[in-house]
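Page 42, continued from yesterday. The earlier attempt failed because a stray header line got pasted into the input along with the sequence. Redoing it now with the clean sequence only.
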Amino acid sequence: MTLAEKAYVSLRKDIVEGCFAPESPLRLADLSERYGMGFSPLREALNRLQAERLVTAESLRGFRVSAQSLAEFEDALQARLLIETEALRQSMAKGDDAWEASVVAALYALRLQTRRQGGDVDELKLRHHTFHRALLAACGSDWLLDFFERLYAATERYRIPALLSAGPQKRDIDAEHGAIADAVLARDTPRAEALLRDHYLRTAEAIRSGMAPA
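This time it went through. Structure tokens are written below.
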């Protein structure tokens, strides 16, 4: 990766995972010290993140982490449901044997990491993302996949801190993922869509609870 790409990946990960508070300033001098790189790649990364709505820029005030609100989350959620159900329909209509194998492999890898005691949390997040992307990978539309990536990040920055504050959830998420994969591989489009929507809406309920005033 280029320096600009490394800066983008590192900054994006830290913003999504809540290392920077919403609306906190992103000063180039501080970022340069944190990531050990110059202003130019960091500025390029910040401009990319602004295009993804994870960062805002104000004249004479520089860059800030985008604000968070329940209304913004609901907007991102509805957009995500719209994009992913359409991408899933197209993926199931066009997917071949290799695509089916990639879904099975992604689910298997996710389950292995989920069941590891004291496993690497970053690896779990990566495999979770890989599974959800695998479901849509055969849709044939780079635009849909690009929107998936942006909306995944937009909702993930709510999911991680809100679920932690909401406490343990009485859900078998492994079973939910398995049921989605089974419906997808059976090419049962209505059931696959319904299960995917339910999966996200259950998570949304936990996020709403986590964001509610104490």
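Notes: The chain has nine helices and three strands.
Reminder to self: strip header lines before submitting.
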